[in-house]
Amino acid sequence: MARQEGGRVIEILVDIVLLSFLAVMAVGILRLRNLFAVVMLSGIYSLISAGLFVTMDAVDVAFTEAAVGGGISTVLMLATLALTTDKEKEPLANLQIWPLLAVFITGAALIYGTLDMPSFGDPQAPIHLHVADRYVAEGPGATGVPNIVTAVLASYRSYDTMGELTVIFTAGIGVMLLLGAGSRRRKD
Amino acid sequence: MQRHLVLRVTTKLLMPFILLFALYVQFHGDFGPGGGFQAGVIFGAGFILYALVYGIKNARLVAPDYVIRVLIAAGLLLYIGVGFAGLFLGGKFLDYNVLASDPVSGQHLGILLVELGVGVTVAATMITVFFAFAARGRDEG
Asked: Is the torsion defined by CA of A180, A164, A64, A107 positive or negative?
């Protein structure tokens, strides 16, 4: 029992450290004008988010965040910087009151909105009262796949996954059309 | 990056492990964290690393454009094909139960094939997007 308590304290400490790192990264991204450093910081931001997802036991999400957010996005952003510029333009005025006000009101509304959300891990949350219990209870037996995340993604929700794959397919086709990947026709 | 000896040697050493890890993530996704999406990204990242260090031209020799272009569509077609296979075998669209003699192994087979489709399309798309960005800089620079 005492050991469990200790584990919880450590988990809270890890959460506080990771979240304050996230805040530091966000402020750094806002303040810096060197876009190369900004891209690197956003990569680190993704990696720290992945760490947070691990503490929430969402290892599949953490894996995706680390691979896509920390890896591929960073590389693509760097490639974009190589095509454009790595210096951000100076802002026109030092302090603009209306945008600041809009941001504060939107932020306050969002935080107010979270008050209605069920607390993390609440068994009475709406998401746990629908089909989740059935997936957890039946999933491994019905699909023969021990990883419930995979069972839900690829079997129970295979229509959604097909839609996501179509999105990726469309994105790839779009980039090919816009940037002309591998076309030799641009030379004539 | 033609002259960075350490980077070139390290990349060459890491390459088989990156690709093997991607395959592990792909086919072990049933049992542990991972799956087609993550595996595809890691597999694509292997090729991107190769292109960064050895140049886009050499990377295109390993992964020619026409192959990658076919693979982008092939992954999605495999996914949809599994769906239609269920339809033709007397089930519903994307119903894996009818793919094998008993429902559980049918589900297993269906999930494996569908995840493979996801992995192939994701990897090919990542490689295409990176090549498109990098090659454009090369042409105009």
From this structure: positive
Picking from B111, B129, B137, the nearest residue to A172 by CB comes out as B129
Of A63, A169, A176, the CB nearest to B76: A169
- What is the model's pTM? 0.84
| CB-based contact B121 A162, cutoff 8 Å | no
Domain-wise residue ranges, chain A: 1-88, 120-180
Backbone angles phi, psi at A173, to 5 degrees: -60, -40
Q: Is B77 exposed, middle or buried (0-12, 13-18, 19+ CB in 10 A)?
A: middle
| Overall size of chain B counted in residues | 141
A145, B107 contact by CB (below 8 A): yes
Query: Is the confidence at residue A92, as pLDDT, over 80?
Result: no
| CA gap A145, A127 in Å, rounded | 22
How does residue B10 score in pLDDT terms, banded at 50, 70 and 90? very high
CB contact set of A159 (below 8 Å; sequence gap of 6+): B94
Question: In chain B, where are the structural domains located?
Answer: 5-140
Residue B105's alpha-carbon distances to A141, A184, A186, B111, in angstroms, are: 11, 47, 50, 10
Angle at B69 between CA B64 and CA B71, to 5 degrees: 100
Q: Which residues of A touch B139 (CB under 8 A)?
A: 186
- Is 0.85 exceeded by the ipTM? yes
Residues 6+ apart with CB under 8 A from A58: none
Q: Which among B117, B81, B116 has a CA at the least distance from the CA of B99?
A: B81
Q: Write the pLDDT tens digit of every residue in A23-81.
A: 999 999 988 889 999 999 999 999 999 999 999 888 889 999 999 888 889 988 988 88
Residues A144, B111: Cα–Cα separation, whole Å: 10
